[in-house]
Amino acid sequence: MDRLLQNLKISVHDQLYVKDPESSDLGKRIVQNSILLVHKLGFDEFTFKKLGTAIGSNESSIYRYFENKHKLLLYLTNWYWGWMEYRLVFATAALQDPKEKLNRALTIVTQVIKEDSSFSHINEVLLSQIVISEYSKSYLTKEVDTENKEGYFYIYKQLVSRLREMIQNVNPDYPYAASLASTVIDGALHQHFLKDHFKSITDCNDTITPTEYFKHLVTTTLNA
Questions:
Q1: C-alpha–C-alpha distance, residues 55 and 31, integer Å
Q2: Which of 78, 76, 74, 85 is nearest to 39 (CA)?
Q3: What's the predicted TM-score (pTM) here?
Q4: In terms of Cα–Cα distance, which of 64, 62, 48, 82 is closest to 155?
Q5: CATH number of 178's domain
Q6: 155-175: buried (b, 16+ CB within 10 Å) or exposed (e) per residue?
Q7: 145 burial via Cβ count (<10 Å: 0-12, 13-18, 19+)
Q8: C-alpha count within 13 angstroms, C-beta hemisphere, residue 15
Q9: φ, ψ for residue 173 (rounded to 5)?
Q10: Count of domains observed in the chain
Q11: Is residue 184 a contact partner of residue 163, using CB atoms and an 8 Å limit?
Q12: Are 72 and 66 in contact (CB under 8 A)?
């Protein structure tokens, strides 16, 4: 299993990059250091010039891989959702009971992320923190409808669809499965953010996790 995961490649929409960063050591260093730099500076302060300095290369070399920093953010968030999907699939594939499968899936999509040694150039812990803080900037744009038609958010929507199907398998009569699935996935990001920055408006804390909250929410909703 470990050998299988080491050979796994997360597929990202090929229009998000000029040259596949997974195809070279430089490309992997661009991805690796962009995660470190966006996490340190925030996406608004992040620039290709600063990234070039961090990797000891010309700014122009980064443009050979990514058209702009928006496309780079889309690449990173797409990679994250693709990684999340593969974790969900592997964690639930052998489970037969629909409730057990949904419960495991809820854990996967809402829990605190721990580093995965299968991808040495990707720090999943820092990337998850970037997604929590910056993901909305990838789609709260004037171009979102065009980018959606181009398939830039396909991986994210596929993850939501997988969770929706699991919800429907538990309660086929529940009429809002897609809304509940997207609420869980987006809401988990929001609750993690509130837990760290706006503690007074969430019940999640060091003892009550977003995972506990969303499991309670989904179970109560589907049993109503």
A1: 10
A2: 76
A3: 0.94
A4: 82
A5: 1.10.357.10
A6: bbeebbebbbbbbbebbeebe
A7: exposed
A8: 9
A9: -90, -10
A10: 1
A11: yes
A12: yes
Mean pLDDT within 149-175: 97
Query: 132 vs 39, 109, 136, 206, CA distance in Å?
Result: 11, 12, 8, 17
**Per-residue pLDDT tens for 76-128?**
999 999 999 999 999 999 999 999 999 999 999 999 998 766 677 899 999 99
Residue with tokens 């004037």: 142
Measured distance CA(120)–CA(94) in Å, rounded: 27
Q: Report residue 66 as tokens.
A: 């990514």
Domain range enclosing 185:
2-223
Distance of CA 3 to the CA centre of its chain: 23
Tokens of 111: 């829990």
Q: Helix, strand, coil % (nearest 5) of the chain?
A: 70, 0, 30
- The count of other CB atoms within 10 Å of the CB of residue 77 is 25
How distant, in Å, are the alpha carbons of 19, 47, 120 from that of 69?
14, 7, 23
The two structure tokens encoding residue 178:
């897609």
* Residue 56 identity: G
- Overall residue count recorded for the chain in this entry: 224
pLDDT in tens, 176-195: 999 999 999 999 999 999 99
DSSP string, 120-171: TT--HHHHHHHHHHHGGGGTSSTTHHHHHHTTTTHHHHHHHHHHHHHHHHH-
